[in-house]
C-alpha cells in the first residue's frame, strides 16, 4: 500500500487480503499477478476457478510458480516438498487446469533455464550482498540445491499467461 501511495497509484490499484479459495469477487479485477505463491495451494482447480470469476472480461492472469518434472519425485525432493507443504504440478498440467477453469489464450511455458540462470547469477553476487556470512551460507546452500533439482529435471519453473473472454 505504501508503494502504491509513493508512486501515486492508490486510486488505480486495489489490494485484497484473504483466502483465495473462498473469496467472492466476481469481475473485480483487470489483472491478477502472482510469483511463486500458488505452489502453497493444494486445491488448484478451485484456485483457478476463483481467479477466473474474479477477472473482468478481457482480464489477464500472469504468474510464475515452481513446478515438478514428469518423473516420480526422488525421496530427497519429496522430503523437500513435504517439509514446506508444496503442491507442485507439471507445467502442462497447470495449463490444462487453467483451460478447465475457463481461461482462454492459455500459455504454459517451462522457463527452468531462466530459473537456473537467475539463481547462478545471485550466487555469483552473494559475496557483495552485505549479508552476514551465516546468511550467505544459508542462501548458498538453498540456491545450490534448487539449481541441482532443476538440472536433474525434478524442480521446474513455469510461466503462465491466460485471459478471460
Give a verbal description of the structure.
The chain has helices at residues 2-6, 44-54, 75-84, 91-100, 112-125, 133-152, and strands at 29-35, 55-68, 104-110, 155-163. It is α+β, with helices and mostly antiparallel strands and 165 residues long. Helix 2 (44-54) crosses helix 4 (91-100). The radius of gyration is 18 Å and the shape is globular.
* Spatial arrangement of strands, main beta sheet: 1-2-4-3
Total beta strand runs: 4
Mean pLDDT equals 94
Low-confidence region ranges = none
Q: Helix/strand-derived class?
A: alpha+beta
The 3D shape can be described as globular
* Biggest beta-sheet profile: 4 strands, mixed
Distance between the termini: 29 Å
Radius of gyration based on Cα positions: 18 Å
- The helical percent reads 40-55%
Beta percentage is 15-25%
Distinct helical segment count: 6
Q: How would you spell out the order of helices and strands?
A: HEHEHHEHHE
